[in-house]
Design a protein that fits this description.
Layout: H1 12-23, H2 27-40, E1 44-47, H3 55-61, E2 67-75, E3 77-78, E4 83-84, E5 97-98, E6 103-108, H4 111-128, E7 136-139, E8 149-152, E9 158-164, E10 167-173, E11 176-200, E12 203-226, E13 228-233, E14 239-245, E15 247-248
Parallel strand pairs: 1-7, 2-14
Antiparallel strand pairs: 2-5, 2-9, 3-4, 6-8, 6-10, 10-13, 11-12, 12-15
Helix pairs in contact: 1-2
Length: about 250
């Protein structure tokens, strides 16, 4: 979770439900449904002040240490490219795609930050299940955003934070939009067609068989992927490697 970012959330089920109601509604009801959908999808900022932010703890967590936290930001294409980042479906053996020049941040894992992440995930889950939940952006106390490290990935997706101490941190990357292009076989139906004949003393009798019809269909899919993960750096570890695979939000 990138606390200052206002990112799109998955709400296709919610849109579908309201769209179905809209199709069967009067003009007034349709207008009211559209207004409700717009309201639900307009982010509402919610301050989080409990538990309070511990500034002394955050300052200590970012004091100079001896560990390097490093990783490579990437995503994978599955289902022939239709799904970016997803674990579902038939996995392809395509190599990971690095994400270059992406903004990556690191926060000390304060109790307040943990609560912000919990609330954000809860809100996303409510909306994902199609419930009429308001899109909320949870914001911590101003001091929380003072204690953060920033970097960008290189052309290979590599990033690192040097001079870190042991402890718990949150690493998050900005949202990344992936456009997938490809083709897939589409089922077009079944027909019964003559495929031969039998000649007998009674004459010629045609043979019919079921024929399955299909065609190739091209697709173009846009998917927003993100990376957000808590890590625990153990003591006396010089290099801590992060598996920074981006997945759909």
């Amino acid at each position: 979770m990138y606390p200052q970012a206002k990112r799109p959330l998955a709400h296709l089920t919610l849109i579908s439900a309201i769209a179905l109601l809209t199709a069967c509604a009067s003009p007034l009801q349709r207008a009211e449904n559209q207004a409700e959908l717009q309201r639900l999808n307009t982010p509402m900022e919610v301050p989080v002040t409990a538990p309070p932010f511990n500034e002394a703890q955050a300052r200590q967590a970012l004091a100079r240490g001896n560990t390097t936290i490093k990783g490579a930001l990437y995503f994978k294409l599955v289902n022939g490219g239709r799904n970016a980042g997803s674990d579902a479906g038939l996995l392809s053996f395509q190599a990971p795609t690095p994400v270059a020049n992406a903004h990556v941040v690191l926060y000390p894992a304060s109790a307040q930050l943990e609560e912000i992440v919990r609330l954000s995930e809860e809100n996303a889950k409510e909306r994902r299940w199609g419930r009429k939940a308001q899109l909320k952006t949870f914001v911590g106390e101003p001091q929380l955003y003072k204690y953060v490290l920033h970097t960008k990935t290189d052309e290979h997706g590599l990033f690192e934070f040097n001079g870190m101490r042991l402890g718990r941190y949150l690493i998050a990357a900005e949202n990344w939009e992936v456009t997938s292009n490809g083709s897939e076989t589409q089922f077009d139906g079944v027909s019964i067609q003559p495929t031969g004949a039998i000649v007998s003393a009674y004459g010629v009798a045609p043979i019919y068989n079921q024929v399955v019809h299909s065609s190739q269909r091209h697709f173009r899919v846009r998917t927003v992927v993100t990376f957000e993960h808590f890590i625990d750096v153990p003591p006396k570890q010089k290099v801590f490697e992060v598996d920074a695979r981006m997945r759909p939000r």
